[in-house]
Amino acid sequence: MSTVRANFQVAPLSRVLMIVEVALPILLLVLGIYHGFVQTLYRAGIIQSSSFAGLGYYQGLTLHGVINAVVLTTFFGVAFGNAVMQYYLRQPLFPTVHLLSTGLMGIGTLIAAVPMLLGLADVLYTFYPPLKAHPAFYIGATLLVVGSWIAFFGWIPLIRRWMREHPGQPIPLAVLGMLTAFIIWFACTIPLAIEVLFMLIPWSLGWIDTINIPLARTLFWFFGHPLVYFWLLPTYVVYYVMLPKEAGGKLYSAPAARLVFLLFLVLSIPVGLHHQYTEPGFERFWKGLHALLTFGVAIPSFITAFTVAASLEHAGVQRGATGLFGWIWKLPWFDANRPIVAYSLAGLLIFILGGLTGLVNASYNLNQTIHNTGFISGHFHMTVGGPVFLIILGLSLELFSQLTGKPVRGRGWNIAVPYLWALGLYIFSPAMMIGGLLGQPRRTNMGLSYLDPSSPHFRLDWVVTSYIAAIGGAIMFLAFLIYVGVWIATIAAPAEKPAGLLYLSTAESLHSDVPTTSIMAKLRPWLAIAVLLIIVSYWAPLRQAMRTPENAPPYAPDNPTPAIQVKK
Ligand code: HAS
Question: What is the 301 CA–ligand 1 centroid distance (Å)?
Fold first, then answer.
């Protein structure tokens, strides 16, 4: 694997647009994280209303999920992709394409934010029916997605040009990682576009009265699970490309890393029915097939666990470690000048439990116990809320610093953030998971009678797990406040370097990279298998979902009765 060490000077327009791409979602995150924290307080009965701002439970939960899981991740994916393409391909972005892409994403976000803030879109980040939003929510979300597609389309000519100019070299690993992330994203947002354009928007505009819920949900989960790998792959790019170097060593195997990205391309999509095990209407065989493929998509993460651990061991040995586990203590856990190490290591430690609980979810029988319980919230906070979120926090600040030339201020505080967050998460998520195993639902606004000792529904065990989760939530909130403080100090600092000098540290590989003749240096065969698997796994379930009569009226969870929601 070739390494690039020189800085890359980002063009002035792209520099401004990239600042918007990293800073806007971090600003919105203040609202998103706050609403997560108040959820934990509300569930424990510490506050009576779900939000100090007086919003409804589902309204706050929608803001929390949409900002944290959709807006932040999409903006970061595009910003990091833009950085990776410019840095490794040594080419500027097309200015018009960049402007259009960031503009559409920003406008879409603002359009979707209005109905969410007005309580006209309490549909959660999963937004499938019978929950119904104002049309502006769907239109805004569509613009956000289209903007991210445009960024992706703009990278393709740059990659092709690089390949023409570098015959005999496989594309840089980071480029492959971001390319696979966006191919997965593009492919999985097509069924979402079908659902939104042909079902949800006409329904919310009142052109049709009822909607086929199983079909809408199937199209949503066709998108919804690959989505999580769109979130995860930029994190894996950092673990493979940047972390080994920052930790003081080399990547153990570039070919293994390439295989991981290609396996995700093949296996990320045909697994969505594992979110629908409990739903009727699908023959068991198809749920079983999706279960099998879900175990398949865990394999690239297992390969990652071993490859990243081997790379870290190599780094520890380079730093003088001896013995079987001596490398662990030699890693620069607390080096304030290498914050990406702290953000990565904390994330990896979280992902051990986050990933393993995914395997529990994937098991058809175990899923019957934990589906729709707090266990699921425990799982996804240790995945998207763990490694993914921490890499987004760590790198957003770093990119902002490079794009503005301002040094990161409060470096010691900065590296405290991931460890504090991990501590809070290791309290919050297991409490949610245990609560889930005790039958506690993942969401609730039904009066919380389990908190009331005089109620026949009183559940002391749920009270205890909710309190522990609130303690974890408070620690996570504190970590985020420190992070915001570091951002404010950085923004206030005067620039010390020229603005827009991009630098992404890049590890060499211990094992030589693949030759261009290798199947691992080609995309087409993997794409062909991916398409085949999607057709095989989704053909029958989609037909089975379409058999269901279209008969469901909308439902508003925060406000179930008003006439605006139930069309007469
Ligand atoms: Fe998941 C539900 C199965 C991974 C996110 N998942 C969700 C939801 C979200 C989510 C958001 O099968 C909720 C959706 C909703 O709102 O309803 N998930 C899996 C499986 C995996 C998995 C099998 N999920 C993720 C990732 C996510 C994510 C990644 C976000 C980024 N998930 C499910 C299922 C459901 C589900 C069911 C539906 C449940 C239901 O009933 O509703 C796998 O990909 C996980 C594989 C990962 C591993 C871990 C590898 C470990 C690593 C760390 C190594 C550590 C090192 C440390 C090297 C096997 C890489 C070294 C040591 C030092 C000392 C430094």
Answer: 9
